[in-house]
Amino acid sequence: MWLLRFARQQPLYLMIAAGAAGIIWAVTGQAPSLTVTLIYSFVCGNFTMLVLENVHVPCSWRAASWSWLIYLILLLVTTPMAVTAATLVVFIFVPPALVPPAPRTSFGDFLLTAWKFPAVANLIFGAACLSYLMTGAAWKIGTVNYSGLSIRKRARGNTTPRISSKLVKYKRGCYPRSFHN
To answer: Residues 72, 75, 79, CA angle at the centre, nearest 5°?
Structure first.
């Protein structure tokens, strides 16, 4: 199951790599190394999604704004690890001719010159993924998945559903207060 989801996410990272290469090309006027761009996109994207999808902050114990804050802090902690891992792969497997401006004297020097764009791209990607994951969870809570809480129909033949008070309290714990005013 996880392998299928993993395979389905790879075209997204390929599109991100193409977009990143296009931005680099437009800003610098030089085409970036496609190999380096693909490595950064796939390694950072897979690492970040692995962490964000597997860390669950239950929305019932905090308001949605706290969940966002916790996930953003998690993203800020995850990004340096993802960029370091991807930079290590580039340092080991990509020939120096494909990454000309970065020095190859040591991994530390290489990381100090090569971290900026992958980190910014990963933060943008991670924020977009958080937005998708959080709104996807909100849609599931709002329309499909009520976690065992039921919608009951009114008595006397009325077809208008009556939402249980337990369900309303559950949904209120998952959305910001501004949705309820």
So the answer is: 150
Length of the chain in terms of residues written: 181
Q: Are 52 and 132 in contact (CB under 8 A)?
A: no
Distance CA(6)–CA(176), nearest Å, equals: 31
Q: What is the pTM of this model?
A: 0.68
Spatial separation of the C-alpha atoms in residues 46 and 51, rounded to whole Å: 9
> Tens digits of per-residue pLDDT, 30-52?
888 888 888 999 999 999 988 88
Q: Which residues pair with 40 in a beta bridge?
A: none
DSSP string computed for the chain: -HHHHHHHHHHHHHHHHHHHHHHHHHHHSSPPPHHHHHHHHHHHHHHHHHHHHH----TTSS-HHHHHHHHHHHHHHHHHHHHHHHHHHHHHHS-GGGSTTS--S-HHHHHHHHSHHHHHHHHHHHHHHHHHHHHHHHHIIIII--TT--EEEPSTT--SEEE-HHHHHHHHTTS-GGGT-
Give CA–CA dist 112/90, Å, rounded.
13
Over residues 160-172, mean pLDDT: 50
